[in-house]
Amino acid sequence: MFSLFNLFGKSSEKEHEELLVLAEKIISNYVKGNEKACRKELDSLLEKIDEHIDDDDVPMSGSETKSPKRELIRSLVPYTSENVEIDQGFIDIMNRVIEALQRHSRES
């Protein structure tokens, strides 16, 4: 799997905070059972990731050709659909996103 830590490494502090707030709202809405709000915030998060994270910001190793940004987006997009259950896989991805953002915030 892609490295979320590296993915968020070069976003500005403001962008970083916006991404973290959105990710935390997603988890909060999920815990409250508000899937509609969860999906709405997820749409916003995906838009911000697409706008503010560049593939150039992500160090690639070896013969790796996949875009970590695209991999992250591809793994989350299905959950924007009401036909897809928000499951533990989604929560695991979101927890990794939050962990990576928090780690970068501490190191900044």
Task: Write a compact overview of the structure shown.
The protein has five helices and no strands. With 108 residues, it is mainly alpha-helical. Helix 2 (13-31) packs antiparallel against helix 5 and helix 3 (35-52) runs antiparallel to helix 4 (68-76).
Describe this structure in words.
- The structure is a single chain.
- The protein has helices at residues 4-7, 13-31, 35-52, 68-76, 88-107.
- It is mainly α and 108 residues long.
- The chain has a single domain (4-107), classed as Four Helix Bundle (Hemerythrin (Met), subunit A), CATH 1.20.120.
- It is globular.
Keywords:
single chain, Four Helix Bundle (Hemerythrin (Met), subunit A), 65% helix, 0% strand
Major β-sheet annotation: none
Low-confidence stretches: 57-63
Q: Under the CATH scheme, which class?
A: Mainly Alpha
How many runs of DSSP E, i.e. beta strands? 0
Task: Calculate Rg over CA atoms.
Answer: 13 Å
* Class inferred from helices and paired strands: mainly alpha
How many H/I helical runs?
5
Helix content: 55-70%
CATH topology term: Four Helix Bundle (Hemerythrin (Met), subunit A)
What's the average pLDDT?
79
Total domain modules:
1
User: How far from one another are the termini?
Assistant: 24 Å
Helix and strand pattern: HHHHH
The CATH architecture can be given as Up-down Bundle
Shape: globular
